[in-house]
Amino acid sequence: MIWLLPIISAFLLDLSFEHFYLSFLGLFGLIPFFIFIERICFAGRDKTVLKKSFLGGWLAGFIFFALISRWLFSALPADWAGLNNIFLANLIFVSGWLMLSIFVGISFGIFGFSASLFLNYYQKSSNFLNLIIIPSIWIISEYLRAWMFSLLTWSPSASFAPHWSFGNLGYTLIDTLFIFGSRFVGLYGISFFAVFFNTALFILFFRRRSLFLSAIFVLILVPVILSPAFFAPNSFLENKEFLNIAFFQMNTKLKPMSISKIFLLWDRAESEKRNISQPDMLIFPENGYLGFIGEKEKEFIKKVFPDQNRQGLIITNRVVVEKNGLLQGQIIYRDQKGDIVDVQVKSFLIPGGEFMPSILKFFLVLTNNQAALQRFEVLRSFSNGKTFEKPVEFSLTSVGALLCSGVVSPLLYRSLAKQGAQILVNSASLGIFNNDPFLLSQLKTQARFQAIANEKPFIQSTDGGQSLFIDQNGKMIIETKPSENSILFAKVFPSKIQTFYTKFGDWPLIMAFLILLLGFKRLIYEVGPHKD
User: How far is Cα 234 from Cα 482, in angstroms, rounded to an integer?
Assistant: First the structure.
């Protein structure tokens, strides 16, 4: 029965991601796993304790990631990946899902192994140290997990960096006051808070150390006390300068929308909103683009920007074929006349969607399915940009845009904000996921985090999925239905503020490494050969 405890933790943590009203489970979900470690540690201090702690952690991690990545099954690769053999296509995706869950689940095993050392040897004397060390171990394991995902999905077209943030415990606090602390400590710092709370409750109620009741009160009161600072009058709003932004919500069923249909959408918007003023900015989703300008596109641009002398910006995209046959996704910035202002290559690609990870290539070759691999290479293989995207100056502001997958990477949007972006933009295409509600919920949470942590308005224009306008405090101003085809209008206030997190990044990880080093130093001292 003891092995049910890691499984219970896995399900509790998954539920904290399922619905906003269950997000509080992120503050309690690890407690069954801590009880598991406590019980196996109580049985003795032999080598099997560490082995069982690792296996229990891995079991929890495998189940947790299998659950939160189940949206992979909403994608039907036979529809878009050139894998016409349905059995093979599903086999590849099931294999990829299992490999992902098994491999990144190891991060939970690392956490369990390390946590058992401290929860075991510091049971009586150093509960306060545990309160700091256990969350430090957790965020380091989250950071390692991002690298592990990058390693698992390696390919020449992959970005080898800790971009992947699905499953970070900090996201479960998106609807609490704690999330505003991300402006100081980032995503890993918020995960630290969540595990701190789990650890404090475990020590208080299962080890019955009343000392930690005060720690819990401090943990609760600090964000409450500081919240007026985070909700203070938005200094950049005092400027009263805003931009009229129009952006698209499309549902094209993976087929590029024709310029004629885009005309119809604009005409319908004009009929529904008769006082539409000329927008300052027009944003297209991925796949619904004005990447290549012909006469019909020029006519549309003049319709949207009738005053050709007033500065305007169009954020669009296109796909080009390189000399080596690979595809390349490009973000295109155009002015109000349709002339190109800047072109940037998409740097962060999605494994299985825009390139085939080397491990899956090996699987296809091993099973003698080179033809399927070649079809995928022709239809879906992209090359990534070798440099990260950068902001583009526009009028009196600066805009930073990423294509689709960029929303899952806190690194990329923080980089744009640090370089001076005052508005964050995402142009996405999510049609292959058939509007899976669990995926859309996680992506929405990640978008809200980007807005809050960097204190920047965030706009997402989407083909399939949901288009969003989120203010700098994470409030959802506009949220569309996935099935819509429409043009949306928003008044957006650019933000010149740079948060501490934007400037200095994930500094809590450095602190966590130092804390862990000191913890291991003390651990070695306490159990060293000089001790009786």
Answer: 31
Cα separation, 16 vs 25, in Å, equals 5
The arithmetic mean of pLDDT across residues 11-26, rounded, is: 91
What's the rounded Cα separation, in Å, for the pair 471 and 452?
8
CA dihedral 252, 256, 261, 262 (to 10 degrees): 100
Residue-by-residue DSSP string for 33-100: HHHHHHHHHHT-SSHHHHHHHHHHHHHHHHHHHHHHTGGGGG--HHHHSS---HHHHHHHHHHHHHHH
Per the DSSP assignment, residues forming a β-bridge with 330 are 318, 345
Residue 407, pLDDT > 50, answer yes
Q: Are 204 and 157 in contact (CB under 8 A)?
A: no
The residues, any chain, with a CB within 8 Å of residue 1's CB and separated by 6 or more, are: none
Q: Is 76 left (phi over 0), alpha (psi -120 to 50) or beta?
A: beta
pLDDT of residue 232: 43
Left (φ > 0), alpha (ψ -120 to 50) or beta: where does 505 sit? left
Structure tokens at 123: 């049971």
Of 12-26, 215-229, 507-521, the range with the lowest mean pLDDT is: 215-229
